[in-house]
Structures are given as structure tokens and as C-alpha cells.
Amino acid sequence: MNHQSPTQVIPEFTSIPRHVAIVMDGNGRWAKNRFMPRVAGHKRGVEVVRETVKTCDELGIEYLTLFAFSSENWRRPPEEVSVLMQLFLVALENEVAKLHSNGIRFKVIGDLTPFDARIRDKILASEALTENNRALTLTVAANYGGRWDILRAMNRAHEQRCAQANESFVFSEESLTPHLSMAYAPEPDLFIRTGGEQRVSNFLLWQMAYTEFYFTPELWPDFGRSSFLRAVESYGKRERRFGRTSEQLAESKGLIADSTSEAA
Ligand code: IPE
Ligand code: IPE
Ligand code: MG
User: Fold this and answer.
1) Which atom of ligand 2 is found nearest the CA of 23?
2) Global confidence as pTM
3) pLDDT confidence of 255, banded at 50, 70, 90?
4) Is the Cβ atom of 69 under 6 angstroms away from ligand 1?
5) Which residue among the candidates 25, 57, 149, 189 is catalytic per the annotation?
6) How many angstroms separate the CA atoms of 52 and 54, rounded?
7) Any long-range contacts for 78-81 (C-beta under 8 Å, 24+ apart)?
8) In this predicted model, what pLDDT tens digit does every residue of 70-112 receive, in sequence order?
9) What are phi and psi of 102, to 5 degrees?
């Protein structure tokens, strides 16, 4: 399914975001503050993921996308990389059946080729098991990079062009976006980054053209339900203008209100 692009069509939206994307940062510092090994922070982080999925489901948020491992996280010490991989595998083994029984669709985006075959197989099986579920879509970004995503989409669009021998081909939003790794979802409405850093760190570069940003110093393992609700509340107060003026926005809302009252 193709979702509308906010640079092409002004989207409709409500005070609850349809799609929330999160950089779950601060696990290491959380553990360090408690004189614990970094892995303790990552473990605690998995519990917060569980809670966040539940909250999103309750609020009727349709897409939750979590940055679990960036294409630059391979630069970490090998022991930490291997612990993160193990945790990922354990989480897949323990959580996917529960996600499925709750009607949640599970997806992974990122370059899976360097992963262990066990992880890759488990990911593919989990995606296949849950593909027809229609509650929340939970996407985990693993070995994901925004630049990787855009370049892959360009190469795929180019390949398609060659296969069709289409001489008049130009790169455009329409030719590129179906090849992006999140083509199945609308673009994020709300981006949350915990841990105090105010940067994107190569997350969904293309897809966040009109996303509302929410940065918080809270560390991911502390980011429970009430923190998540605060972020959603902040989102609900934003004025999403998509290039227009405030006055135009008020006018368009008035028109929507008029047409509903006429219909009633
Ligand atoms: C985020 O927490 C988790 C991953 C990147 C896998 P960090 O591990 O980056 O925690 P800090 O930033 O060192 O506190
Ligand atoms: C971003 O966190 C990636 C994930 C949360 C998976 P990092 O902790 O790796 O980001 P930087 O290095 O501080 O930008
Ligand atoms: Mg970090």
C-alpha cells in the first residue's frame, strides 16, 4: 500500500500520532549510574519496549518503529555487539508468540546480511507469522541506516528502470518511495529520542521530512508509560503546518468542522 507523502499532499492527522518512531537511547548510562554492566541497561530497555508496545496498542497508535541497532553500532566493542545480538535473539524467541496473540504485526528493517543465520531465520519466520495481523505494526530497525535505505531504494528503482527499458525514467518521489524499507507505513508523525542527545543518528532520514521531534533527557530504561504519554501529549499540541501559514491551517480546520456539521 502506498501512503501519501506530506511533500506531495497535505495529510490529515489527529492529536494521536499514527506512527511513532523512537531512538531508544541511554541504556548504557542508566546502567553506569547504577554501577552495573551496560548489558543490564539493555535488558531493562527490553522491558520498556514491552510496556511501550502495550501503551501504543491502547492508544490506537498504528505504527511503532524502534531503533535497536544502527549501521554505526558495529563500531562498539565486540563484546557489546555480541551481547546485543544475543538479546535480540532471546527477545525474538520470547516475545513474538505474544505479539502474534495480541494481533501485532512484526517487521524488521535494515541490512540483515551480516546477522547470524539463526537471527535472520527467526526474523523471517516472525514476519511471516504475523503478516496478516491488523493491530499495531511494530517495526524494529536493526543494522539500519537512513542513508543505506535511500541508496538501496535508488538502486532498486534504477534496476526496475533497466528491466523495463524505460528511457524517460527520472528519479522522483513516486519512483523512489515504493522501494524504501518502510513503504508499508505512513511517515512518522512523532519522533522521540531519549537520553538527552538531540540528533537523528542516521535513523529514518527520508521519512522524517515532516515529523514532529521530541527530545527528552530521560534515559530509555526510565521511559515508562507516563513518559510516553507526555510525549504524545506534546505532539497533540503541535501546529503541523506543512508549509502553510497558521491562518490557513485554522481556515482548513474550520472547513473540516463545517462539512461534518453539514453531514450531521
Ligand atoms: C541505546 O543505548 C541502545 C543501543 C544503541 C543499542 P546506548 O547503549 O547507546 O546507551 P548510552 O547512550 O551509552 O547511554
Ligand atoms: C542511536 O543511538 C542508535 C540506537 C538507539 C540504536 P547511539 O547511542 O548509537 O547514537 P549516537 O552514537 O550517540 O549518535
Ligand atoms: Mg547511546
Assistant:
1) 5
2) 0.93
3) low
4) yes
5) 25
6) 5
7) 80/38, 80/39
8) 999 999 999 999 999 999 999 999 999 999 999 999 999 999 9
9) -95, 10
- Joined grid coordinates for residue 188: 512518522
Looking at residue 254, what is its pLDDT?
78
Residues with CB under 6 A from ligand 2: 23-25, 67-70, 73, 197, 199, 201
Contact 174, 9 (CB under 8 A): no
Neighbours of ion ligand 3 (CB under 5 A): 25
| φ and ψ of 209, to 5 deg | -55, -40
Please say if 73 is a catalytic residue.
Answer: yes
| Nearest ligand by distance to the CA of 84 | 1
Q: For the segment 185-200, what is each residue's pLDDT rounded down to a tens digit?
A: 999 999 999 999 999 9
Residues facing residue 19 across a β-bridge: 63
CA of 25 relative to ligand 2 center, distance in Å = 6
Is the pLDDT reported for residue 260 higher than 70?
Answer: no
pLDDT at residue 261 greater than cutoff 50 = no
- C-alpha to C-alpha distance for 212 and 208, rounded to whole angstroms: 8
Residue among 22, 23, 24, 25 whose CB has most ligand 1 atoms within 8 A, to mutate: 25
